[in-house]
Structure formats: structure tokens, C-alpha cells
Amino acid sequence: MTGILIRFLAALILVFATWNPSGWSFVQWGLNTLPNVTAGLVFVGVVLLIGWFLFLHATLESLGMLGIIMALAFFGSLTWLIFDLGWLTASEGVLNYVVLVVVSAILTVGMAWSHIWRRLSGRVEVEDDHDRD
């Protein structure tokens, strides 16, 4: 469970560092800096790009498109339920944060899917070696 929590925190940092409605994010920093591009802006952009590549690649590889669609359906219906039960009220600010958390949750599931699958099924996944004949 600790590994999944660490992945979720990493996904939250990645998503919220890229953009969030508070005004403190890479996107706002870049928009406020342009047309003067700084070394710090480029470095942070490259680090975020690497993070997005790692998370998206792992998510696509582990879940596939059907799995991503099912994760979207699961977290979307869960979000609807939370709003329907009155635990959150819909406003633009709340919806922005909810979407960011849902994106983080989907990336987390993608990064941790093999661990989750092993726990649920008791089976270990083994990748095929395509180079052997």
C-alpha cells in the first residue's frame, strides 16, 4: 500500500506542478515569462516532460486503451457519486481540483497496475520475450 501511496503522491506532484488553478504551476510560470525563456523554465519543463512520459507510457502499457477507458468510467462515476451524495458541491474551482486528482489517480493505477493485479489475482505477470525464437 505504501508503494501505491508514493506513486499517487508523485502523480499529484506531477499533475499539480504542470497546471493547477492556484496560479503556481509550470504553465502559469511559462505564460508569465514568455517571450523571455529562462534556463530554469526549460529545465523544469524537461523534468516535467520526462515525468509525463514515464507515467503515460507506464499507464498505456499496463492498462491499454480499454483499461484507461474503464479507469475513466470508474473515477468519473465515483466523482459523480461524491457530488450526488453532497460531499462536494460543484463550482469551477472544486471541479478543477477534482479533475486534477482524478488524472493523478488514473496515472497511479497505471503505474501500480502490476502490483494491484498481483494482489487481486495472486498471479505474477511475465512479459513475453519477442527476441527469442
Please characterize this protein's 3D structure.
By secondary structure, this protein is mainly alpha-helical. It has one domain (2-121). The chain has four helices and no strands. The protein has helices at residues 2-18, 26-33, 39-84, 92-121. Helix 1 crosses helix 3 (39-84), helix 1 (2-18) runs antiparallel to helix 4 (92-121) and helix 3 packs across helix 4. The mean pLDDT is 89.
* Total E-strand runs: 0
Shape: flat
Helix and strand composition category = mainly alpha
Question: End-to-end span in angstroms?
Answer: 38 Å
Which consecutive residue ranges, at least 5 long each, have pLDDT under 50?
none
Profile the largest sheet: none
Give the oligomer, counting copies of the same chain as homo and different chains as hetero.
Answer: single chain
Q: Give average pLDDT, whole number.
A: 89
Structural domain count: 1
Number of discrete helical segments: 4
Keywords: Membrane, Transmembrane, Transmembrane helix
Pfam families: DUF6524
